[in-house]
């Protein structure tokens, strides 16, 4: 019986996944590395530094750790410029109404995101005090597909992993949730993933999940 729903953030609650793409694209262009939307798919749910390493695999140059940190900081500054322009109107009515209805049905609601910008994003969307628990990129050692982020979110609520449903847009996130023995609902880019138990055409399809 599912009593807790853990939401991924980028690409599930909000469309910040596109801002990640724009910021990585700008950095890649500056470094003369080819990068397109298809490459961006590999970065979903993956931490900032691991994402940079994936992008740099295409480069013929080798960079020092200091240079890599500089690149990651540059990308994050660009990304945050987009985030700071977000307002509560960037939260879709469908997402907010569905969250409210799930809460009314009695589910505990949590965030499980690899992003170190989670608190900023939730604040911009007017959701800073909405969720019962938040586990984000600042609180974990291992990034998805490791299950740490979802296990910690469940632990914060004292919930059994088997009673949690994770909503994910990334293959890495679906794998992470499954390896924690959680139920998985895949949306967007993760739709059709063999690691998912449910496939959502749209966010409000969560309301149709038969909770037995
Ligand atoms: P940041 P999620 C992930 O968030 C993104 O999908 C991924 O593209 C990003 O690299 C990662 O957060 C780290 O984000 O640079 O903000 O710390 O999908 O797990 O909510
Ligand atoms: Mg995501």
From TrEMBL:
Keyword vocabulary terms for this entry: Carbohydrate metabolism, Isomerase, Magnesium, Metal-binding, Phosphoprotein
Gene name, Swiss-Prot/TrEMBL: pgmB
SUPFAM superfamilies named in the record: HAD-like
Top EC class, one word: isomerase
Catalytic activity of the protein: beta-D-glucose 1-phosphate = beta-D-glucose 6-phosphate
EC number of this enzyme: 5.4.2.6
The species this protein was found in: [Clostridium] ammoniilyticum
PANTHER family linked: 6-PHOSPHOGLUCONATE PHOSPHATASE (PTHR46193), HEXITOL PHOSPHATASE B (PTHR46193:SF18)
Superkingdom of origin organism: Bacteria
Gene Ontology MF terms: beta-phosphoglucomutase activity
Family: Belongs to the HAD-like hydrolase superfamily. CbbY/CbbZ/Gph/YieH family.
Cofactor dependency: Mg(2+)
Name of the molecule in the record: Beta-phosphoglucomutase
């Amino acid at each position: 019986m599912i009593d807790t729903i853990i939401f991924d953030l980028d690409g599930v609650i909000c469309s910040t996944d596109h801002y990640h793409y724009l910021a990585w694209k700008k950095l890649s262009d500056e470094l003369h590395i080819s990068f397109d939307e298809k490459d961006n798919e590999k970065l979903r749910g993956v931490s900032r530094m691991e994402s940079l390493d994936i992008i740099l695999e295409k480069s013929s140059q080798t960079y020092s750790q200091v240079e890599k940190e500089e690149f990651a900081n540059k990308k994050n500054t660009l990304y945050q410029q987009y985030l700071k322009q977000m307002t509560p109107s960037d939260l879709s009515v469908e997402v907010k109404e569905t969250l409210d209805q799930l809460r009314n049905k009695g589910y505990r609601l949590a965030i499980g995101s690899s992003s170190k910008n989670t608190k900023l994003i939730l604040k911009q969307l007017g959701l800073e005090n909405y969720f019962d628990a938040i586990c984000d990129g600042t609180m974990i050692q291992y990034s998805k597909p490791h299950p740490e982020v979802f296990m910690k979110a469940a632990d914060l609520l004292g919930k059994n992993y088997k009673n949690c449903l994770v909503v994910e847009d990334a293959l890495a996130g679906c794998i992470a949730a499954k390896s924690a023995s959680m139920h998985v609902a895949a949306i967007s880019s993760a739709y059709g993933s063999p690691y998912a138990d449910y496939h959502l055409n749209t966010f409000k399809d969560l309301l149709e999940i038969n909770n037995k």
